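Reviewers of the previous submission asked for a worked example of the structure-prediction workflow described in the proposal, so we include one complete record here. The input consisted solely of the amino acid sequence. No template or homolog information was supplied to the procedure at any stage.
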Amino acid sequence: MTPAEYIAEQDPTRQELLTNIHGIITNNDKTVIAEVSKMMGKDMIIYNCKIFKYGLASVKDYMSLHVLPMYGSPVIYGKYSKLLDKAKFQKGCINFKSAAEMPLPIVEELIKDCAPIDLAAIYGERKKKS
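From that input alone, the workflow returned the following structure tokens.
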């Protein structure tokens, strides 16, 4: 299944927002490749750059944007938890129900801040130390 097919299978009221967020990720982070895969037992769009970097999901009660660079950066987490204060923040993901909770200009800024972060290099350095 392609990301476009995944989005087409979601609730019609969510499709435009999911399409827009997907486009923001693929247009602003050229290091990732998007594919539909299972994470936490559910299909979602996974964005990999040798390792998992982002995930975009639509589940029963909400949508979710997983942002691994945010998990490792208190600065990014702090900045966007304030800017996206209508969404529900977890350690590495943002849960939301509508476009009002995820203004696209702020989502784009988030992805632009995360795009330069080389998670594979960070993981490799941590692995060398352990």
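The chain has six helices and six strands. We consider this example representative of the routine output the project will generate in years two and three.
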